[in-house]
């Protein structure tokens, strides 16, 4: 029996499910326009509404003429593509083909996830406003906390919602942070909830995420999902029989696009 007898959409769904369990950078992005993307190279124009003018009103008075709602336009283009192509020998498959396939899909998801994480964090770093960046030394948990408060101030000035703010830190900085009660207090129900959701700590209004895929591994990235958008799909998974040998093959294609839509909603600290 060949892998061709398995439903490709089932394996696509399992692969995307594994990705959902793995990706951290995705939390910085919304997927508001994902349904409008169909294929590699597709593009969606995103119109952003400008500020609404607020004025004093006097009872019985007349309203001023309405102002134009001018806004910027940005593009979400599907320009990120990754693929896999592997085979499983019939002798190995005899030990349990579905289990082998699911394990292989998990490994494919891990490989995809690392590339996707680096791509998404790179988008955030490239898209942030210069005014929302800072360079700072980092030697203690106190330094980490002070830096987070600086990043918090930047988001406050950008009127970014309080609920949903997150910050991604490299493991070395998380190690420092976990030695300070301002980041996490063990034994509480809140701490247990954070552990289950993948959040390792909380400080300065941010849920703290630990990642290995930040560019240069020397940055703290803070933000909110209203500030960037992404679209992704497993475009295809295809099973086939190898002509030479006794093996079944499986190949798959991941497509994605990402864009920072509110540069003032991201804040980045480069640390030394």
The CATH topology:
phage-related protein like fold
Total number of domains: 1
CATH architecture: Alpha-Beta Complex
Helix residue percentage: 25-40%
Which structural class do the helices and strands define?
alpha+beta
Task: Report strand order across the widest sheet.
Answer: 4-11-8-5-7-6
Say which CATH homologous superfamily is assigned.
phage-related protein like domain
Gross morphology is: flat
Our count of helices gives 6
Cα-based radius of gyration, to the nearest Å: 23 Å
Q: Tell me the span between the first and last alpha carbons.
A: 56 Å
Helix-strand pattern: HEEEHHEHEHHEEEEEE
How are the SSEs ordered, and which strands pair?
Elements: H1 8-22, E1 43-47, E2 73-77, E3 80-89, H2 90-93, H3 97-127, E4 133-136, H4 141-157, E5 166-169, H5 171-177, H6 189-196, E6 201-203, E7 206-210, E8 219-223, E9 228-241, E10 247-260, E11 266-271
Parallel strand pairs: 4-11, 5-7
Antiparallel strand pairs: 1-2, 3-10, 5-8, 6-7, 8-11, 9-10
